[in-house]
Amino acid sequence: DSGVTQTPKHLITATGQRVTLRCSPRSGDLSVYWYQQSLDQGLQFLIQYYNGEERAKGNILERFSAQQFPDLHSELNLSSLELGDSALYFCASSVITGETGNTIYFGEGSWLTVV
Amino acid sequence: AQSVAQPEDQVNVAEGNPLTVKCTYSVSGNPYLFWYVQYPNRGLQFLLKYITGDNLVKGSYGFEAEFNKSQTSFHLKKPSALVSDSALYFCAVRDMSTDTGRRALTFGSGTRLQVQP
Q1: In a mutagenesis test of the B interface, which of A106, A108, A110, A111 is the best target, namely the one with the most B β-carbons within 10 Å?
Q2: B6-63, pLDDT tens digit by residue?
Q3: Do A101 and B51 touch (CB under 8 A)?
Q4: DSSP letter, residue B81
Q5: What is the sign of the dihedral through the CA atoms of B35, B39, B40 and B43?
């Protein structure tokens, strides 16, 4: 158990709908990362938050957004869903110190199926 | 921008034999390299990392990785494979932006390891 908690584990929704994925980082971790894993795109970095602020953006679509709350949990919002958004969405967390070798720990993921 | 490449989609090895999963990297500056494993229907589990120092890094479940700067490689190894090692393995490199808050990982495409009994 990595200590990173993601809900829901599985989600089935229709095209055009909106869903929210939730993540609780490991205790003490200030940074949260979101990744998308699909068969054709592999593991893609979406976005990183650090202590409530967006810190880095990867291949995140404009239809997707995220935020990190004062209690450090994070939500990934996916809207106007398309079939191609079906994927496994991972949340991960790490401490951020001056040391660059901090390990990033991943949750079990949220399986999203768009039908 | 940093990147890693995993040239093999799949590696097959017999149980008890040594295994190697290959990874090469491209970074400007010193690399910070990681290996993760994904078992079926599970999340990514951290195996080991290279930050600096000894070129042979030891990690979880008997795995180790050899960092080779001249060949820009970071191959994952295990002396004796187990059937339970069958999984998807990812190599990753850390974002080394001067913004110290940016530390996301860039992953390779993954290598499926199949260990036959």
Answers
A1: A106
A2: 999 999 999 999 999 999 999 888 888 999 999 987 889 999 999 888 899 999 999 9
A3: yes
A4: -
A5: negative
**Residue B54 at interface with chain A, using a CB cutoff of 8 Å:** no
Torsion on CA atoms B89, A35, A26, A7, rounded to nearest 10: -110
Q: How far apart are CA A29 and CA A93, in angstroms?
A: 6
Predicted confidence pLDDT, tens digits, chain A (115 residues): 889 999 999 999 999 999 999 999 999 899 999 999 998 778 999 999 999 999 889 989 999 999 999 999 999 999 999 999 999 999 999 876 555 568 899 999 999 999 9
Residue type for B74, please?
F
The string of DSSP codes covering A29-66 is --EEEEEEEETTTEEEEEEEEETTEEEEE-S--TTEEE
Q: What pLDDT digit, counting tens, does each position of B88-108 carry?
A: 999 999 877 666 666 788 999
